[in-house]
Amino acid sequence: MKTAVILPVYNEAGCLRSVLYNLRDALCPLQQYDIQVVAVDDGSNDGSGDIIKQMAAEWDALRLIRCAHHRGYGSAIRTGLAAVKYCDAVAIMDSDGQFDAGDLAKLFSLLPDADIAAGVRHPRADSVLRRMLGRCGSRLARTLYRTRLKDLNCGMKVFRREVIESLSLKSSGGAIYLEIFCQPSIRGFRIAELPVQHHPRLTGRASGCRINTLLGIWRDSLPLLVNSSG
Fold first, then answer.
1. Measured between alpha carbons, how far is 46 from 44 in angstroms, rounded to an integer?
2. Cα dist from 63 to 93, 94, 168, whole Å
3. What is the pTM assigned to this prediction?
4. pLDDT digits over 129-156, tens only?
5. What are the residue ranges spanned by the domains of the chain?
6. Handedness of CA 85, 184, 39, 41 (dihedral sign)
7. Which of 154, 164, 170, 200 is least buried, going by the fewest C-beta atoms within 10 A?
8. What is the crossing angle of helices 48-56 and 13-27, to 10°?
9. Environment class of residue 189 by beta-carbon count within 10 Å: exposed (0-12), middle (13-18) or buried (19+)?
10. Residue 139: phi, psi to the nearest 5?
11. How far is CA 212 from CA 174, 189, 208, 218, 226, in A?
């Protein structure tokens, strides 16, 4: 099975090397999946792209895609998805050091009986404010947009190719998972959820609670109500 792991990266130089080593060590035993890692550097200005390039020189499975300018989390994921259309399964994992790549094997193992395997951060190692916003966001998404996930924005998910091919995505920011899971095409696919480890962010700066980020998510989510009613 040809498989890809998409790693959206923006200014994660402080933890990126350890994230990549963790990912390499976790994926090595999974030879049956024929895995390629696509790291999308979304216009980082802290040397993140150079770290990926150096690591790719010693790890054949790692591929770097550089974006000239910072365009947003959703844009990085869309860029990665466009690059791996040939794969039978595609995983997405955030590069902020808060996830353990070993959990990818558990999500892959769900695919024989599911089309989408989604992580649920448990326990969630974020501030009280971020946990509150996350719970409210997931609840609103289930109520208004008819999504089916307990933890919509968990940055560890696996999709079969048929799911990826069914999507039409436009979001460039933090509303990307809402856009994915409120599309009518998703409703015909089987979704399985599994608890995954979640660690405190030790380096870098989280952007999910910034006012401009929240406003951007709100702006991008409003047009999606049309899709969710389809």
1. 6
2. 15, 16, 24
3. 0.88
4. 877 877 777 777 777 778 889 999 999 9
5. 3-228
6. positive
7. 200
8. 30
9. middle
10. -65, -45
11. 11, 33, 9, 10, 24
